[in-house]
């Protein structure tokens, strides 16, 4: 019996030492949400940027891993966000939280009382969860499957910005393109579109051509910022996006998942065609864009 008691005591001491000094977080929060990891990743970054006291947020090796540093008074809290896809339309978010200045005391108190640290952590995660739920209700992505990017001739400008400011870059340059074509009697030939030239998923930066489709003519204006090209047809995976064009990149992540799930190799240079003019108003939930993710060509 003494040997058994000694073994039990050693095990209990080992567990306590591990919990107090080796366990990586002071507190963990989990919740499920009806959307996919890319939408969670981007919403989390926007939410962090709009906090009264924004923290530093760093993406890990994948979009499913993020490390956020928040300051509350004299304490620095580390939020390690892990996103796990459950189904095509649901995900689980796991948040491991640690107070870098009071970690040991938190671990002692947490099992026995509802501490201010726990209350603050729950409120912070709940604030994000509520914003995420509101965002999910304002957009929709419908996967169509294999299709083709339509061909067109277009006037275009090249823009480099962040994913979140992609739509702003379009709106800033639309008057330049449309007015120049109108002044020279060039006939428009379809809705505006963008073709992404480079997408850095680590830094959320994009370089893209903002294209204004036109009927090719001899009256094309010469302008230092405007160029002309043909957008060629290519095989692609297609999705329909409904919602504010600021967040149309949500469809990019949905298409990447569809491609991975179906073993389709794609080129991460999406093409978007926009069918609504945000300046005319209307409920953004009804705005429509066609999103294409080009399929890589195979050479046999």
UniProtKB/TrEMBL annotation:
It holds the Pfam family GyrI-like. The chain crosses the membrane at residues 6-23. Keywords: Membrane, Transmembrane, Transmembrane helix. Residues 142-296 form the AraC effector-binding domain. This is Transcriptional regulator. It comes from Flagellimonas lutaonensis. It comes from the Bacteria.
